[in-house]
Amino acid sequence: MLALYSFYEWVQEIEDPELAAKKTRAIYKAKGYPDSWIEKRMRGIEVREVLTDEWQKRGVKEGREYAILTAEISQATLKD
Questions:
Q1: What single string gives the DSSP state of each residue in the chain?
Q2: Are residues 66 and 50 in the same domain?
């Protein structure tokens, strides 16, 4: 079972995003996902963040189409 974040942990992760990435990796590992899947998933998250930041800079608003595009990117990233 996943423990809830403490306020202290949350602040630490804001100050050092790598802590959040390490925690996410540990959670996936604990759930039994293979390392190759975890790396693909983490890479997909990173790529999606860069892409959605760019969309926002260009004025794209979050909504149904935005969700569909990000879901497609995630699915394509995790395909073998």
A1: -PPPPPHHHHHHHHH-HHHHHHHHHHHHHHTT--HHHHHHHHHHHHHHHHHHHHHHHTTPPPSHHHHHHHHHHHHHHH--
A2: yes
CA distance 24 to 26: 5
23-69 confidence digits (pLDDT tens): 999 999 999 999 999 999 898 888 888 888 888 888 877 788 778 87
Asked if 12 and 19 count as a contact pair (C-beta separation under 8 A), the reply is yes
Same domain (yes/no): 5, 16: yes
What is the domain range of residue 51?
A: 34-80
Entry pTM: 0.65
Say how far apart CA 67 and CA 55 lie, in whole Å. Answer: 12
Q: Are residues 5 and 40 in the same domain?
A: no
Count of domains observed in the chain: 2
